[in-house]
Structure formats: structure tokens, C-alpha cells
């Protein structure tokens, strides 16, 4: 099956949110991106002069464009994220900017902390996201904090350390934001019930 020329592919792109994939002449995915408006975003690659040499090289290598239309920008973000993880396109790595999206992490530890992060580590905990807005994450965390008293300290709350009286409750305990797991005032079971509710 012959692939239509790039000009035709560009003309037929819709003005809708979605994800676009660039393929090289060997039909290998070299880049995945998301857009609020597919036609505008993808066309900009071919109409404007790029400052980055890597972007200029990428544009020269594009032989075919594939797009997927989605309902919202958030759907586009999630799909882009999944496709990048699945295909690991070369230019997504080369052109990676500092813009990473926030996640909410339930840390993999005894008496787990719940916090926002932009870095996802394998085995570091359970990650919820990514979110398109940092504001949404802060609102959710404020809500969680208001409903469930959780610890925010970095202590290693191993059973032996708590039994040995290694820690003392902090201001968060006196403000009733935490139930003092560090001094054994809260059981692991009760704490984990809150974590279960948060999930």
C-alpha cells in the first residue's frame, strides 16, 4: 500500500485533540507527541524554523504520520505517555525537555507517605497520574490531608526503631495532622486502612 505524500497527510489532519506519531523511511516510530489541535501542532513542525538541531534532523527523517483522535487534552496526555513507554521512540529521548508531569505517589514503605512527584521510580511506590495540572495534584493532596491524618516526616518507621523509642512526635502530631506512628501511638493496621481509603 502506497503511503500518501506528507503534504496530503498534513492536509487531512483534523482540528481536534489527539496524539501523532512520526515514522521514518523504515517505518520505525521515531517520535510521539500530543496536541490540543492536531492539524496546527503537526503543521508547525513543517512550517516554522526550529532552533534545535535535533528537531531539524527529526523533521527531515519523517516519512509518514499517523494520528489518533481523542476526546480531551488529558486523554491525549495519557495516550502519549503510554505510547512513549511502549515504543521508546528515539527522538522522544533526544528531545526530552524538563517538562515532566506530576504524579501522586503512595510510597513503598511502612506507614506510607503520600506526596506529589515528577519522578517515577520502579519499585518506589504506587503512582497515580500523570496529571496535566500541578494545581489539581495540590488540591487532591490538600483534600487527602484534610480527611486522613498521615505522616509527612522522613523517618524510617521500622518496628524495632519505634519500640526502641528512637523518635519523638513533632508539631504535626500536636496540630492533629498526624497520629504519632513514630512513637507507636497509631497501629500499622489503622494507618493502612486510611491508605486503602485514599487509593
UniProtKB/TrEMBL annotation:
Keywords recorded for this protein, A-Z: Cytoplasm, DNA damage, DNA excision, DNA repair, Excision nuclease
Listed GO biological process terms: nucleotide-excision repair
Signal peptide (UniProt feature, chain positions): none
Location of the GIY-YIG domain: 15-93
GO-annotated molecular function: nuclease activity
GO cellular component, one term: excinuclease repair complex
Gene3D superfamilies: GIY-YIG endonuclease
PANTHER family: UVRABC SYSTEM PROTEIN C (PTHR30562:SF1), UVRC/OXIDOREDUCTASE (PTHR30562)
Name of the protein this chain belongs to: Excinuclease ABC subunit C
Organism, as annotated: Seonamhaeicola marinus
Amino acid at each position: 500500500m502506497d503511503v500518501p505524500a506528507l503534504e496530503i497527510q498534513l492536509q487531512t489532519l483534523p482540528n481536534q485533540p489527539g496524539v501523532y506519531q512520526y515514522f521514518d523511511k523504515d517505518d520505525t516510530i521515531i517520535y510521539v507527541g500530543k496536541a490540543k489541535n492536531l492539524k496546527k501542532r503537526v503543521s508547525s513542525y513543517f512550517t516554522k524554523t526550529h532552533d534545535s538541531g535535533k528537531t531539524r534532523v527529526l523533521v527531515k527523517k519523517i516519512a509518514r504520520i499517523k494520528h489518533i483522535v481523542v476526546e480531551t487534552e488529558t486523554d491525549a496526555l495519557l495516550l502519549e505517555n503510554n505510547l512513549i513507554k511502549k515504543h521508546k521512540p528515539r527522538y522522544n529521548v533526544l528531545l526530552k525537555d524538563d517538562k515532566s508531569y506530576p504524579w501522586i505517589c503512595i510510597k513503598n514503605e511502612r506507614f506510607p507517605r503520600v506526596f506529589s512527584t515528577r519522578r517515577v521510580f520502579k519499585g518506589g511506590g504506587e503512582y497515580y497520574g500523570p496529571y496535566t495540572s500541578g494545581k489539581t495534584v495540590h488540591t487532591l493532596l490538600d483534600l487527602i490531608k484534610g480527611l486522613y491524618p498521615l505522616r509527612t516526616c522522613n523517618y524510617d518507621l521500622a518496628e524495632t526503631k519505634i519500640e526502641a523509642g528512637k523518635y519523638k512526635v513533632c508539631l504535626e502530631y500536636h496540630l492533629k495532622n498526624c497520629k504519632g506512628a513514630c512513637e507507636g501511638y497509631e497501629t500499622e493496621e489503622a494507618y493502612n486502612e486510611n491508605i486503602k481509603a485514599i487509593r
